[in-house]
# Entry
Amino acid sequence: MPVFRWGDSWDTFRDLERQVDRLLNGLVFPIPMLRLERQYPPVNLYELPDEYLLTAELPGTEPAELDLSVAGGVMTLRGRRQPPAGVTDDQFRRHERMWGSWERSIPLPERVREEEVRAEFANGVLQVHLPKAPEIRPRQIQVLPGPVEGA
# Structure
């Protein structure tokens, strides 16, 4: 997302605008809100009776360019979006859609059977099915009367 803008009437500064955008996009700010960017890809997480369902919008991404892993209660999505073919940086008049490599880690809800997670991808939407694990209930232990030795 462009961070620095002079406005449409400043045509001579468009190259400077692009250079500053490239510079600022490469910087890591200590406080993420400084850039007012959303994490990519946008996701929704739903709780259904037997599973959690995570959906992610990934237009322009091919299934072969996706990597999904689950470990330690965290799901990591990695992928790549190709830049538009045949368009150079100096041809852009507005550049809001990102491309390139991306990665996003999402903490999973409690009680997910990580070994049974499955994913589907169609029409630019990734669906990840996260089956719920059975609830862990405290086990009631019966106390029997009897002699306590050595007490």
